[in-house]
Amino acid sequence: MNQTPFIAVEGPIGVGKTSLSRALSAHYQFELFQEIVEENPFLGKFYDDIEEWSFQTEMFFLSHRYKQLEEMDKKYLSNQLPVISDYHIFKNKIFAQQTLSDKHFSKYMKIYDILTEGMPEPNVIIYLNASLETLLNRISQRGRQIEKSIDPAYLERLSSDYERFMQEFEAHHPDIPVLRFNGDEMDFVSNQQDLHTIFQTLEQTLKEGDPVK
User: Fold this and answer.
1) Residue 117 domain-assigned?
2) Could you tell me which residues are beta bridge partners of residue 84?
3) Is 86 an annotated catalytic residue?
4) 119 lies in which domain range?
């Protein structure tokens, strides 16, 4: 395991990745990397017509996430400075497989494999999941204009894809711990005890890996 903590928070849209990442960064004073969402000029069109705008949307996300990962490695991890991220680039494969045609997905993965070769992987993943009802409620509460046209069926498929992907990830990466938390049962934004539970679990995991403090 990479000894410098690189903690990635993952899960479907609306599950609370950014809120938890910010709380972790503030608590541990780790550098925070957040994904670019609303800056994607294709995203609004994507939610209106997934088939038409999926390739442009996914390529934009891939290039920006690759650039952030490159910066993270160069400026922080290579200098033993720990980081928190509210995503990891592997999520691109989940979204791309869900939205792209077979022809576009094949081209996309060739580019993905080239860009991510040799890039650092997280040494801990915090995986948040929740029911469709909870996800839709949280998306509504945060009120992003760009997300108002999200199809619940798309979100439900995405959640299922995330779960399947994480199971495969755990099977193929036994050296990278995956800490699972259920958003239906925990509210780490409003309940400090829930947040403290996550802190304790993470600290124990990092201690077992003996990361650099």
Assistant:
1) yes
2) 7, 32
3) yes
4) 6-203
Residue found by looking up tokens 């442009």 in the block: 56
| Host H or E run for residue 178 | strand 178-182
Q: Which two tokens stand for residue 146?
A: 């760009």
The angle at the Cα of 26, spanning 169 to 165, to the nearest 5 degrees, equals 10
Exposed (0-12), middle (13-18) or buried (19+): which is 112, by Cβ within 10 Å?
buried
Give the CATH number, domain containing residue 187: 3.40.50.300
Number of domains the chain contains: 1
Flag whether 19 is in a domain: yes
- Residue in 73, 86, 102, 210 annotated catalytic: 86
Mean pLDDT computed over 105-114: 95
Q: Model-level pTM?
A: 0.87
CB 123 within 8 A of CB 209: yes
Domain-embedded: residue 55: yes
Contacts 24+ apart (CB under 8 A), 203-208: 205/124, 205/177, 205/179, 206/5, 206/124
Residue 41 lies in a domain: yes
Alpha-helix runs per DSSP H in the chain: 17-28, 43-48, 50-75, 91-99, 102-116, 132-142, 152-172, 192-209
Label residue 145 by pLDDT band (50, 70, 90): confident
Q: Are 10 and 87 in contact (CB under 8 A)?
A: yes
3-class DSSP state of 192: helix
Local confidence band at 212 (pLDDT 50, 70, 90 cut-offs): very low
